[in-house]
Amino acid sequence: MKQPAIFVDRDGTLIEEVNFLSRVEELRLFDSSASAVRALKEAGYLVIVVTNQSGIGRGIYTESAMHQIHQQIQIDLGGMIDEFYFCPHLPDEGCLCRKPGLGMIERAQRDFDIDMERSWMIGDKKIDVETGINGKLRTAMVLTGYGTIHQFQLNMKPEIISDNFGEAAIKILANHK
Q: The pTM is what?
């Protein structure tokens, strides 16, 4: 049976924005992240992180360091993230996986039986909203991270604009069928 998914951006959405986060010691979950992920999981959503990580391609940190951060996020969230997908490429490399491209979304579709019509993309940047629109997903923007700036740069408005990930989850669950 197909499950809807919440595709969630990592930096500035699930965790506090740190320019090129490279150390577990710098990792800070937003206060609402754990309760939001738990509520979404209890409602039957897959929770899948999709994140551009060009710091790897820039040589600022290693893929191993990023995986350590993802392992800590899993620990902090009680193992509730279904999967982490990342793009290590630079913005100008033209890869298919970098948001707003759909490579990470398509990979998740191959790995999971996802009900795309009931799925959402949540993020704090214009490219997150564009990714959702490109993937024909419902979209939510959070005003954490870059959201306060990027909300004014959007060509197409998301269905939901929320102060944070927790508030976005509450609004999504209010519409959940």
A: 0.97
